[in-house]
Amino acid sequence: MLVTTAIVSWALLLANILLAAESASRAGAVQFSMPYINNLLTIVFILAVFLHQRLSAERLKGIDFIGYLWNLFSKAGIAAYLSVALYLAYRLITAYAGQQSILLLHLVYVVNFGLLVVFLAKAFYIWRQLLLYHKNKFLQIAWDWFEVLLFGTLLLTLLNFDYTSYIFLPLLALLGFYILFLCTNLKWVAYLTFNNKSRSLILLGAILLSCYIFARFFHQLADSPELVVDFTDVGFLPLAMLFVGLYTLGAFLVSLFSLPTSSVFEQKSEDLLNFQRLSQSIQQGQSEAQVYDMMFDSTIKASDAGSAWFELVRNGEPQVTHLLNIEGEQIKRIRHLLLAYNIQNIDYINNNLDRNPGFRDLSLPWKSLIILPIKLKQHLFGVLYLLKDIEQGFDRETVNVLRTFTSQTILTIENLRLVTESLQNERYKEELKIATQVQESLIPKTFPVDSWFEISTHALAAKEVGGDFYDFLQLSESRIAIIIGDVSGKGISAAFHMAQMKGIFHGLMQQDMPPSEFMKQANSALSRCLEKTSFITSALYIIDYRMKGFVFARAGHCHTLYYNAMMDDVFYFQTDGLGLGIIRDKSYNNHVREMYYDYNPGDVMVIYTDGIVEARSPLNEEYGEDRLLFMLSQTYHLEAEDIKCAIINDLQEFTGPDNLYDDQTLLVIKFKAIQQNS
């Protein structure tokens, strides 16, 4: 019905304009003119086309963004090129005939008007689909009002008002700023891969050219004395073209300027995916050999190494099991030199091999070397060697990623061996022993010491292994990220998920992202590997001593207890947050909030798990948040270590001996008054 309405209204509009043009050409002035009829038919045609395209666009689903762009260009953007061809044909005909045909000019003009409306309608609603990708309630309301306001401008055309008059210009300017705001919503571009961004630039460029062709055509013929109608007087069309053109230009520029960094983010995503694959290897029943294959391939991709080999240690003897672009004789020469330097089975990096006389004498093509032993305490599983033919080939960020890969490999191999041994004898005992060792190796024993803060920690598992965890990552000289969390459940499963969370923390925070963004991406990653009955509560803090403040976000974790020295007040930060893995779709992003707080010298921050406040006395009374707050109010003047000891002593006195039912973790951070390094 909408298609029929559009065709009929356009045909009637064409007939009315041709009659008016014929009348004008015979009498020398416009004798047959029905502007209100023209305006009504124009509005009916625009509404019919736009409503039809709105319904068509709503049938487009999924995240095939290139498909959206191709759909727009192939079904509407090409209309501009048909318009050019039609106008050139008109010019050739008039040139050949030696005189201008008024009727033919009007026919070309009205046909191009129809093509323009079809193009704008298609582009308008495809951009709507992309603009509302990952939408929130505010953005949806903003778009709905934009549609109402834009289509409201058709009333000006219906009543034959001049939209460029001084009365309407301020409103049009405000609508222009509104359009500019909407055009900043380009989240979908971030999800394009490098190849897709290259393809999108071509399509967006073609669509931009379509906008230019239509704009130039109608601008040139605006207020032409030869025409009895001027469609640039329809205020709806310039505004719709402004939105379509600006959004296309915005998408083009964002795609263009983000193109150089696309490969970096794709590598980060690939690293995170490899973390998940390694951590899930035990659940998928893979063998040690498959885990080593995955580790070897993942580290090569993450480091972009040109050559590499991996030695698996069996019965104390190294055996080369993996090779990449290196010969056995070259390996022997390198190993012999490393042995001479007493570099064996240790973490080693050399980014300037040419400056070392021994390596230079080997006449090998490589200039950077990193050695990563795969070992747990005193047990050595193997050694990974990576080589590059450029100097400074392994930067700090790459090294951190590689070390996280090897740590995850150790955990996976240990768990695989645990499963094998448990099938033979003393399954539960051996499982707990190895898991405890792995967990202890993953939890930091010390935090960095500096003049601007002090920290004291306490961790106690209710069973041999627990689900509580904490960790830190030095982001820069003045910034540190601290994370604490609690995995639902206890035992091996909780410890395993704790290790997954640690790997995700180190993998994502290499990008130095805000806490709220970390929670969103961590939830997305964990949703693929956590059992449906499991979830993780967590809180992430980024402390910046140069700015003298910290920013944090919580994912359903216990509220942070804080003492403000300037106000002499003890309180809990009441912030929103939902546990990771509870909601496993994009709607989780609406449940994460971020808070920034400036600290003062002498401030104290107490971070803990629910095993502290939910601990119970022999009379089944809960320790509670109020008692914890009271303890801080009595001890805030002490050092961090003394504050922690006072709280733990009070807790143990409250619960009594052998009355531990849940893992307990406590971190006390005190900001110092003297900051010599700032």
Strand content: 15-25%
Residue share in helices? 40-55%
Q: Largest sheet, if any?
A: 5 strands, antiparallel
Span of the ends, CA to CA: 72 Å
What average pLDDT do the residues reach?
84
> Can you count the helices?
19
Computed CA radius of gyration, to the nearest angstrom: 34 Å
Return the structural class: alpha+beta
Number of strands: 15
Low-pLDDT ranges: 28-32
Protein architecture, described:
The protein has helices spanning 2-27, 35-58, 65-97, 102-131, 137-152, 154-158, 169-182, 194-220, 236-280, 288-303, 328-340, 357-362, 396-422, 427-442, 491-509, 515-526, 610-613, 624-635, 640-655, and strands at 307-314, 317-324, 348-350, 368-376, 379-388, 453-460, 468-474, 479-487, 536-544, 549-555, 561-564, 569-572, 594-598, 604-608, 664-671. With 678 residues, it is an alpha+beta fold. It has a 5-stranded antiparallel sheet with strand order 2-1-5-4-3, covered by helices on one side. A 5-stranded antiparallel sheet has the order 6-15-14-11-12. A 5-stranded antiparallel sheet has the order 7-8-9-10-13, covered by helices on one side. A hairpin with a 4-residue loop joins strand 9 and strand 10 (549-555). Helix 7 packs parallel to helix 9 (236-280) and helix 9 (236-280) packs across helix 15 (491-509). It is elongated, with a radius of gyration of 34 Å. The protein starts with a helix and ends in a 7-residue tail after the last strand. Mean pLDDT is 84; it is low at 28-32.
